[in-house]
Write a sequence for this structure.
């Protein structure tokens, strides 16, 4: 495992070819930006995603191993994954602390969109993601292991149109709140 995280000792760094010019480069936007989807575009964008379409939501403030494992497991339940993020005001109303979120919606959305298992990232200002669920019409609705399926927002609607609802057990006990507690001492 250790060697997988490091390059070989003495391995050369990338260098410009002889005679190559060094200076500013005009680059296209990163590919992940195409995965960012404003709420008003969700219905139109979701219909083009492969099915079964999976939907989950959350804050995903300081991305950690628990988050990425959960999202990979969620994606494994279908052919595409839509993640709806709590907007900043919505996070504050959750009572996670006056200084939360640590990362802005724009930063959280970029990080989630950059994950290979995620196909589309949207957000919601409301207290629950029900409007995004109704717009997306997922075949599979998932939340983390701290939610029982019958308590997941949108469960009756998704089951009503023939979908399924799942609670994914935590594999790595991680928490942004606990991590912040450790950092702050």
């Amino acid at each position: 495992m250790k060697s997988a995280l490091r390059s070989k000792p003495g391995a050369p760094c990338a260098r410009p070819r002889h005679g190559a010019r060094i200076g500013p480069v005009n680059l296209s936007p990163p590919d992940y930006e195409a995965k960012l989807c404003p709420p008003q575009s969700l219905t139109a964008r979701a219909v083009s995603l492969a099915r079964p379409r999976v939907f989950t939501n959350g804050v995903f403030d300081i991305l950690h191993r628990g988050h990425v494992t959960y999202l990979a497991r969620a994606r494994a339940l279908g052919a595409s994954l839509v993640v709806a993020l709590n907007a900043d005001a919505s996070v504050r109303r959750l009572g996670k602390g006056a200084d939360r979120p640590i990362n802005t919606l724009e930063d959280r959305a970029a990080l989630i969109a950059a994950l290979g298992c995620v196909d589309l990232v949207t957000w919601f200002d409301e207290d629950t993601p029900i409007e995004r669920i109704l717009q997306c019409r997922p075949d599979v609705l998932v939340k983390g292991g701290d939610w029982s399926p019958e308590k997941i927002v949108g469960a009756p609607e998704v089951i009503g149109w023939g979908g399924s609802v799942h609670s994914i057990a935590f594999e790595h006990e991680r928490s942004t709140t606990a991590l912040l507690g450790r950092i702050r001492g």
